[in-house]
């Protein structure tokens, strides 16, 4: 079990604060947010000195680097160039992957074709940088459900490309998240996790994204992840808390850690019993 937190939860605070309280909440790793207009804890133009400071902060806290989230509209050429700069800095930090969505528009063939070409370009660049590119299935974008994800991995065969699975996005478009994990298991290299009211299209307020407070079938999702032998990191990604106080965002992280840790422990025990 590799549990981490996307630093976007601490978007109202500097990275040093995020690292301190992610560690305090019990997590093993961190996903750096590099998301313009939300949280930029890794700047795409960070110099070597700044990168050394980031590495020291995280290593001194005993955390692992899991990923960088660089969510952006990758159909815009300037944004793809920014993402490539993030790739380079992630590689220097020893971060194994960067994740983003596909942009585009669901069920729009022209936009989907453009997304596939943009993803191919970025996956090639990630491979050249020596890291992975985890494409996140995202509500409203070109790659958003099981079917479109399967099309992606069939048409874009870059070795650096994998999928970032988030049950809240897949579930809100009508797919069963558990069945989606089963179908996509060979391609999932990263996982975002949180709760929400899955029957609603809008992601709930941060306090209802806390694991266990919404209606996402997290128990079944975790069971399927363990059953299929998923070995990657599972990262708590909670958005919308930029104006929350430090005690509130720390409580969100800590409560989610307790809930998710229990789910993973029980799922692993169940798997061992079945194997026995």
TrEMBL record:
InterPro entries: IolE/XylAMocC-like, Xyl_isomerase-like_sf, Xyl_isomerase-like_TIM-brl. The keyword Manganese does not apply. Gene3D superfamilies: Divalent-metal-dependent TIM barrel enzymes. Residues 21-253 form the Xylose isomerase-like TIM barrel domain. Keywords: Isomerase. Pfam families: AP_endonuc_2. This is Sugar phosphate isomerase/epimerase. GO terms for molecular function: isomerase activity. The lineage of its organism: Bacteria, Bacillati, Bacillota, Bacilli, Bacillales. It comes from the Bacteria.
């Amino acid at each position: 079990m590799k549990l981490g937190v996307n630093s976007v939860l601490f978007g109202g605070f500097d990275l040093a604060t995020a690292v301190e309280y992610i560690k305090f909440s019990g997590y093993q790793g961190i996903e750096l947010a590099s998301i313009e207009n939300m949280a930029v804890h890794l700047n795409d133009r960070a110099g070597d000195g700044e990168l050394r400071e980031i590495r020291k902060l995280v290593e001194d806290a005993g955390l692992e680097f899991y990923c960088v989230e660089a969510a952006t509209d990758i159909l815009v050429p300037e944004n793809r160039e920014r993402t490539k700069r993030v790739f380079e800095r992630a590689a220097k930090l020893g971060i194994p992957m960067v994740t983003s969505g596909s942009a585009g528009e669901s069920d729009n063939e022209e936009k989907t074709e453009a997304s596939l070409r943009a993803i191919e370009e970025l996956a090639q660049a990630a491979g050249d940088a020596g890291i992975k590119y985890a494409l996140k299935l995202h509500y409203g974008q070109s790659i958003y459900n099981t079917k479109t994800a399967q099309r992606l991995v069939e048409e874009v065969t870059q070795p650096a490309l994998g999928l970032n699975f988030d049950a809240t996005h897949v579930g809100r478009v009508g797919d069963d998240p558990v069945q989606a994990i089963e179908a996509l298991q060979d391609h999932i290299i990263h996982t975002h996790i949180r709760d929400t009211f899955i029957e609603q299209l809008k992601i709930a307020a941060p306090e209802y994204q806390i694991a266990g407070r919404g209606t996402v079938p997290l128990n079944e999702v975790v069971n399927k992840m363990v059953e299929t032998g998923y070995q990657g990191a599972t990262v708590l990604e909670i958005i919308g808390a930029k104006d929350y106080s430090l005690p509130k965002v720390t409580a969100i992280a800590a409560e989610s850690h307790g809930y998710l840790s229990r789910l993973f422990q029980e799922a692993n025990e169940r798997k061992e019993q079945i194997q026995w």
